[in-house]
């Protein structure tokens, strides 16, 4: 058994995932309670981007070895990669508590707080990392936005100045400034910065995506579609880009294109509530009420606090002649709009971030 375990680890190191998987499965035949084998199988799944399978293996490993921080770190990473930042926070908090000097879990925890819009907690986690991360442009950008959101103007200016000092006038810095403008809803300024970055480096990851976001916010949907399409030439496997393309195609009245883009987005990431919502809207407009209801149910499970979901439910029920139920959904939507930020409203920071 030990030979198989060592062979599996060696295969994992050299990137031979098939052999690694085979060896660790052998270990589990001999020892079904071997936490290390489950943990390493989880890593195999992670490298294949099989997030759901990875989570199953890692949670089994955690039950068998609850005191191993590395297992909980990988669980946090899986949730992070799936875009479920709120779920990533508890395991990352536990690792940061157990390993207070380890940089990766502290940075990931701060980033998860940031992406979950818990800006005060993000700032409290990220600011202490200045000594280690102040050469990292992404860190400086996130820190500056968190500082802006929490009213810490001195730290915001410090991070922005450091960003220019580290990156100069590079396309990467122009991209980050454009993203910061988007976060502050300065959309026209964002277009200027992002176009400058795209001109200097048209293959720069994210630049066309965020330029598409800026154009969409300005209701320039044809330009937004063009930029999102250009983003796919840089990275063709990003679910969020297909989701955005579906959205702008819907605005342009290109419903069949929109449907195809939403389905592609869900093929890449089955947790995108906005893509299910987009499909539901198209089916509703075509009076395909049962299909619309099914897609909307999936959106609601993923985002139970969305006013948009309840409003569209009301519209569908009204179309089906179920007026009393429709009225109830409209009332729920109205209450939610007053108390909860709708997660189905566009948020460019939901694009996957690289720690």
Q: What are the salient characteristics of this protein?
A:
355 residues; 76% helix
General description of the model:
There is one protein chain. The relative contact order is 0.05. This protein has helices at 2-13, 17-30, 35-47, 51-64, 69-81, 85-98, 103-115, 119-126, 130-133, 137-149, 153-167, 171-183, 187-200, 207-217, 221-234, 239-251, 255-268, 273-285, 289-302, 307-319, 323-339. Residues 341-355 have low confidence and may be disordered. Helix 4 runs antiparallel to helix 5 (69-81), helix 5 (69-81) runs antiparallel to helix 6 (85-98) and helix 8 packs across helix 10. The longest helix has 17 residues, at 323-339. The radius of gyration is 22 Å and the shape is globular. With 355 residues, it is mainly alpha-helical. The chain is built from 21 helices and no strands.
Order of helices and strands: HHHHHHHHHHHHHHHHHHHHH
Instruction: Give the tally of β-strands.
Output: 0
Number of helices: 21
Overall body shape:
globular
Radius of gyration: 22 Å
Low-pLDDT stretches? 341-355
Helical residue percent? over 70%
Note the beta-strand portion. Answer: under 5%
Mean pLDDT: 90
Distance between the termini: 36 Å
Largest sheet: none
What structural category characterises the helix and strand content?
mainly alpha
